[in-house]
Amino acid sequence: MTWWTVATIAEVIWIVVMGVGIVLERRSPVATIAWIVLLAWLPFLGVAVYFFFGPRRLKRRTLKRAAGQKLLAHAVASIREDSEHPIARGQLAQMIVGAGEAPPLRATKVELHFDGEAAYAAIFQAIEQAKHHVHLEYYIYEPGKIGAELRDRLTACAKRGVEVRLLIDWVGSHGLRGSFFAPLVAAGGELAWFNPVASRRINWRFTNFRSHRKICVVDGQVAFTGGMNIADCHGGDDMVGSAHIGAHMSGGPAAKDAKYWRDTNVQFEGSAVRALARIFLEDWYFATEKPPPTGDAYLLPPRKEGDELVQVVASGPDASMYAIQKLYFGAITSARERVWIETPYFVPDEAMTEALVSAALRGVDVRLIVPERGDNRVVDYAARSYFPELLRVGAQVLEYTPRFIHAKTCVIDSDLSIVGTANLDNRSFRLNFEVVVAIYGEKTNQALAAAFENDLLGTRPVKNRELRREPFLQRASEAVARLFSPLL
User: Fold this and answer.
1) Of 82, 169, 219, 349, which one is the catalytic site residue?
2) Do residues 68 and 217 share a domain?
3) In this structure, are 282 and 369 located in the same domain?
4) Which of 11, 126, 163, 481 could staple 133 via S-S, CB 3.0–4.6 A?
């Protein structure tokens, strides 16, 4: 028997054994095939990736997270008692509640920020006015100008007796070291890392179970979330070249400085803040294993004040419902007038693709704004492989050219807006911890739609004919990248 025969037999046995194990985990068919292909092509590297980043690692984490959720069970009960029903999209809201997330809650204020200048100014102001606690969670925290200023403001906050808790993702903030926060810790602030791994020097696009959330909660009364991390790429107090339309709106061709990203954050106040506050406390316990602080100071009692309705929706790989994916799917399939989406990473699963296609076929105005060029070539190739399906049914795909667009938003008809941290891809829906807010009502919808229309001024439409004329090598690269969509 030759060595080639032995190697072939060993490879077949390897694929069968690992394939059976993966199939029994009952993942989606596409994800199952992708894992089997990876293990077959790269047996040694593939098994390391599978056991280090795959579902077995997740099972250990799920038990730990469940303990934190149990400790905050009273908060969940309180939030559900404060439910606001009926509303115009009551069935959609109820579906999210059925998936284990919070119901729509009242907010006294909802404000959108479309650049770092406005977003950071609002966050800094809230921190300066904090009286009891400041809770922050970020995927990326860079030790640049914005990062240093935030650290110094948090340090001053801690020195005057305010509780400061800062949770940072271990991989997302790979360029950061704990020594950067020495002044904050010395002043009494607390620092924790989310889900540490062996090395920070791992490409984030191939690292699972990260906290991709961006959360800031001040005194349980003011909350911020959205696409903006703590990074100079979003711009700060000296941001150059922001075109303003209305309040804090920038984008379109008037944005002169391409180094700053176009992004969207949302700030809200009132009873709805409790739902985002609870998510941070769960994540804090998950990272520190310390019982999370509880009480009215952290989770304010229900208040029936405010004209805005906000539903906070979180999801992660430790939950089987994938609530954010269900929110997007339900919103798109129920749309009657328009579905306007902005996302930097567009690698939809089959259900999301069909939802967009069916919406376009029934006459809904479906538009998708994506970056002209993203920051990951493989993801760009995979995304482009989905464009022909949308274009054939009348949907519009538009590439944003002035700068990189990092906003993760969705405008549905005239009464639903979605803003958060989740991209329209499998990684956000199933592999990372994310959070979005669904805002019910016309006021925020109009503001987000106006921002979308402003961004349209800086886009160019993708045409089917240009996709058909792409060189063979590019079309082949797109097809191959699409095979790995469940892992991207």
Assistant:
1) 219
2) yes
3) no
4) 163
